[in-house]
Amino acid sequence: MAKKKIGEIVAEELAPFLKEEGLELFRTEFVKEGKDWFLRVYIEGAWEEGQDAPPPIDTDKCEKTSRFLSARLDELDPIQQAYYLEVSSPGIDRPLLSEKDFSRFKGSLIEVSLYQAIDGKKSVQGHLQGLKDGNIVLTDEKGKEVVIPQEKASKTKLAFVF
């Protein structure tokens, strides 16, 4: 079964459960690493309008989601090969993947990794202003606006400051 299809099945099966639990599906991955396959499911707290960040996810929520999904997948049996199921939160250095993510985290400190250096840098950090016309717009530490074409970004994530 195609990886995309597995992600769709997971999303479909989890939707009512996650809604009831006050959670949202962030993303799924079905990947082979070495000889092993992993189905990774990332969940987050459901966002309310006006919230700065989603509610935190604890291990109990991940465990409960894992047990539910494992039982559903055992019933449906959509994956032919053996795999490991992992359920977690997106983490503190959460990637920004969708337009919704860029909107939700406006004003947050982010880090953009680039495929090729721009002005001698392969990584740019600043406060997210938004996603405009296919460009990631942020303000650097000097207050200067930086515009990065989204296709030049290999990864965009929340920056974690110690």
The termini sit apart by 42 Å
Strand % is 35-45%
- The coarse overall form would be globular
Count, helices: 3
Tell me about the largest β-sheet. 5 strands, antiparallel
Radius of gyration: 18 Å
Mean pLDDT: 91
Give, in order, the helices and strands: HEEHEHEEEEE
Low-confidence stretches are none
Number of strands: 8
Task: Name the helicity range.
Answer: 25-40%
Category by helix and strand content: alpha+beta
Describe the structure using short key phrases.
five-stranded antiparallel β-sheet, 162 residues, single chain, 3 helices, alpha+beta
Overview of the structural elements:
With 162 residues, this protein is an alpha+beta fold. It is built from three helices and eight strands, in the order H-E-E-H-E-H-E-E-E-E-E. It has helices at residues 3-21, 59-76, 99-104; strands at residues 23-33, 36-45, 84-88, 109-118, 121-132, 135-139, 145-149, 153-158. The strands form two sheets. The protein has a five-stranded antiparallel β-sheet with strand order 7-6-5-4-8. Strands 1-2-3 form a three-stranded mixed β-sheet. Strand 5 and strand 6 form a beta hairpin. The longest helix has 19 residues, at 3-21. The radius of gyration is 18 Å and the shape is globular.
